[in-house]
């Protein structure tokens, strides 16, 4: 079974990636298994940051790499938190603080103006010098709820209302979320295009 390094230590992303890529018969391992430092994400877009992370992981592990950069863009906040979604409130990966900041900024915003979408860019690099990395992108439309709902998922899932399901993303089963989500859609495209 071929190993592919995931350019992240995020356990939520690792679980989702392994579920979504199971049909490829590969083992997705987090870069934290190799004790390598996080890449410096100094790109200005999800695409740039994904490429930076994938190249970094491939270079330091010698393995093919998958990286994703994803985040929430809220229309009322002119696209924020965007590429800064994981560190919106300061420290990276503090979901509770990020959600609290978003709720504070969206307080008293009418329902019609609470539109938002999750974006995801997934990059697959066969090696660090891959001149044609696979780049797959998707978006998931929703609205920001006035309070958190649900226990599933991670990140902004408790605040992201999915109209077609009439619930928050955090109230969806893993299977249903993977069918609908930005990451699920981008990874499905990757599965259809990847050549190992």
UniProtKB/TrEMBL annotation:
<dbReference type="InterPro" id="IPR002637">
    <property type="entry name" value="RdgB/HAM1"/>
</dbReference>
<dbReference type="GO" id="GO:0009146">
    <property type="term" value="P:purine nucleoside triphosphate catabolic process"/>
</dbReference>
<dbReference type="GO" id="GO:0036220">
    <property type="term" value="F:ITP diphosphatase activity"/>
</dbReference>
<dbReference type="GO" id="GO:0000166">
    <property type="term" value="F:nucleotide binding"/>
</dbReference>
<keyword id="KW-0547">Nucleotide-binding</keyword>
<feature type="active site" description="Proton acceptor">
    <location>
        <position position="69"/>
    </location>
</feature>
<dbReference type="GO" id="GO:0005829">
    <property type="term" value="C:cytosol"/>
</dbReference>
<keyword id="KW-0378">Hydrolase</keyword>
<dbReference type="GO" id="GO:0009117">
    <property type="term" value="P:nucleotide metabolic process"/>
</dbReference>
<feature type="binding site">
    <location>
        <begin position="182"/>
        <end position="183"/>
    </location>
    <ligand>
        <name>substrate</name>
    </ligand>
</feature>
<keyword id="KW-0479">Metal-binding</keyword>
<comment type="function">
    <text>Pyrophosphatase that catalyzes the hydrolysis of nucleoside triphosphates to their monophosphate derivatives, with a high preference for the non-canonical purine nucleotides XTP (xanthosine triphosphate), dITP (deoxyinosine triphosphate) and ITP. Seems to function as a house-cleaning enzyme that removes non-canonical purine nucleotides from the nucleotide pool, thus preventing their incorporation into DNA/RNA and avoiding chromosomal lesions.</text>
</comment>
<dbReference type="InterPro" id="IPR029001">
    <property type="entry name" value="ITPase-like_fam"/>
</dbReference>
<dbReference type="InterPro" id="IPR020922">
    <property type="entry name" value="dITP/XTP_pyrophosphatase"/>
</dbReference>
<protein>
    <recommendedName>
        <fullName>dITP/XTP pyrophosphatase</fullName>
        <ecNumber>3.6.1.66</ecNumber>
    </recommendedName>
</protein>
<feature type="binding site">
    <location>
        <begin position="8"/>
        <end position="13"/>
    </location>
    <ligand>
        <name>substrate</name>
    </ligand>
</feature>
<feature type="binding site">
    <location>
        <position position="177"/>
    </location>
    <ligand>
        <name>substrate</name>
    </ligand>
</feature>
<dbReference type="GO" id="GO:0017111">
    <property type="term" value="F:ribonucleoside triphosphate phosphatase activity"/>
</dbReference>
<dbReference type="GO" id="GO:0046872">
    <property type="term" value="F:metal ion binding"/>
</dbReference>
<dbReference type="GO" id="GO:0035870">
    <property type="term" value="F:dITP diphosphatase activity"/>
</dbReference>
<comment type="subunit">
    <text>Homodimer.</text>
</comment>
<comment type="similarity">
    <text>Belongs to the HAM1 NTPase family.</text>
</comment>
<feature type="binding site">
    <location>
        <begin position="154"/>
        <end position="157"/>
    </location>
    <ligand>
        <name>substrate</name>
    </ligand>
</feature>
<keyword id="KW-0460">Magnesium</keyword>
<dbReference type="GO" id="GO:0036222">
    <property type="term" value="F:XTP diphosphatase activity"/>
</dbReference>
<feature type="binding site">
    <location>
        <position position="70"/>
    </location>
    <ligand>
        <name>substrate</name>
    </ligand>
</feature>
<keyword id="KW-0546">Nucleotide metabolism</keyword>
<dbReference type="Pfam" id="PF01725">
    <property type="entry name" value="Ham1p_like"/>
</dbReference>
<feature type="binding site">
    <location>
        <position position="69"/>
    </location>
    <ligand>
        <name>Mg(2+)</name>
    </ligand>
</feature>
């Amino acid at each position: 079974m071929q190993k592919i390094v995931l350019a992240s230590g995020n356990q939520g992303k690792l679980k989702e990636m392994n579920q979504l890529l199971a049909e490829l018969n590969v083992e997705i391992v987090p870069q934290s298994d190799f004790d390598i430092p996080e890449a410096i994400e100094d790109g200005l877009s999800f695409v740039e940051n994904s490429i930076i992370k994938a190249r970094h992981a491939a270079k330091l592990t010698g393995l093919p790499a998958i990286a994703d950069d994803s985040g929430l863009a809220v229309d009322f906040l002119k696209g924020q938190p965007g590429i800064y979604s994981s560190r919106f409130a300061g420290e990276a990966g503090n979901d509770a603080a990020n959600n609290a900041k978003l709720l504070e900024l969206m307080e008293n915003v009418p329902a019609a103006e609470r539109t938002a979408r999750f974006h995801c860019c997934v990059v697959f690099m066969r090696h660090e010098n891959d001149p044609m990395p696979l780049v797959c992108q998707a978006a998931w439309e929703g609205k920001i709820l006035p309070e958190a709902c649900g226990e599933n998922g991670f990140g902004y899932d408790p605040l992201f209302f999915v109209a077609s399901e009439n619930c928050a993303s955090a109230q969806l089963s893993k299977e249903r979320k993977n069918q609908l989500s930005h990451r699920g859609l981008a990874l499905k495209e990757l599965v259809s295009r990847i050549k190992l």
